[in-house]
Design goal:
Elements (H helix, E strand, L loop, with lengths): L1 H25 L3 H29 L2 H17 L11 H6 L3 H15 L9 H17 L11 H6 L1 H19 L1 H8 L6 H26 L1 H22 L5 H29 L5 H22 L7 H19 L14 H5 L31 H10 L8
Helix pairs in contact: 1-13, 2-10, 5-6, 8-12, 8-13, 8-14, 9-12, 10-11, 10-12, 11-12, 11-14, 12-13
Amino acid sequence: MVLVARLLFGAALAGAFLALYVARLELCEPPHRLGVTMVAGFFWIAGELLLPGLALLCRNWRVLQGAVTMILALLAACWWCPALLLESPRWLLATRQPERARKTLQALAEDDCPQDSLLTGAAGSMLGSLLPAELEALSEEPPRPRYHSVCEICSSRVIWKNGVILGFAAFIGSGIRHCFTRNLVPHLPHFFSSHLALVGTEAAACLFVCLTAERFGRRAILLLCTVLTGISSLLLLALTQYLLELIVLTLSVVGTAASHAVTMLSIFFASEVLPTVVRGAGLGLVLGANFVGKAAAPITAIPNSRGFFLHHVVFASFAILAVLSIMLLPESQGRSLPQSLQDGESQRRPPLFRRPPREDHLPLLAPHAIPHGYSGLASSTKRMLRSPDPPREM
């Protein structure tokens, strides 16, 4: 019974954090998407740093469980206050719920534009990109939710390929980490020192992704981090007994940080290339692959186990295979999030040595034939928010 309760608690907690991750991402404009996500990652790392101190203060697992439950209760209180936790208007429009989308956009416009100018904030940019294409198509049929199953994801060629590659990369990044941390154990004999060192490498990886992925692109940085992970793993696998202890320690730290970066960037990259209608389901599968990789570490840590060498060989080989697979991914830097399955299928791999044009200043969900003038956007947006029916044209 206790095991079932723990499994249900873990599933509910993972679902809550996944929903918050997706909603936060879908409310951001392209230039701010990575920064907002990495700031949330720093909060996660801060929680990992504070957890040993909280456990030391509580001194009893029951008191610690109660303290954690009280903190989660504050998060659950946001569900009762829609102003604190808004539903994603992207998802509402993509699943054909325009009435709820109008209310959410109106709340965003009121909070984001106190000077009665809907073009100065995220709400204005989102309204300008959503209304012309989406609501006109929605007005031709009665509003009804449109959900897509996992079977529909599997039937799509490009979306399925992107999801599998990024899930594979997340699996490798989390699974190979034990091969590096094993070499750090002799230098970090105490629990708190080892925990702080591992969380410190995660913070360094998060900072590296935040500084480089927006400048050089998601695919290039993911490729670089995967190459660093594979090279560090291969060198440790073949030359550990011949290398100096300082070099082994350096390679282990670099490999640990690079594997953290691979995992974080794979999950973020997947959230940008998966369409809105399947983003939650697809991102859940990628996160599931990440946790499967983490589950491999305790198996190799069993005393008198001889499976560590095989574990290291398999994941080092997988890292090299991931380097070749990442080249098949599209670039999502500065581009709008895909909405439908058709948008996800239209993504193509850019040339390897020529960067695709950025689209940061275009609307988030711009159709292919959108005009370049937005002089009437504010007035049409105000009319839409006041009218009971969605407008058919701008």
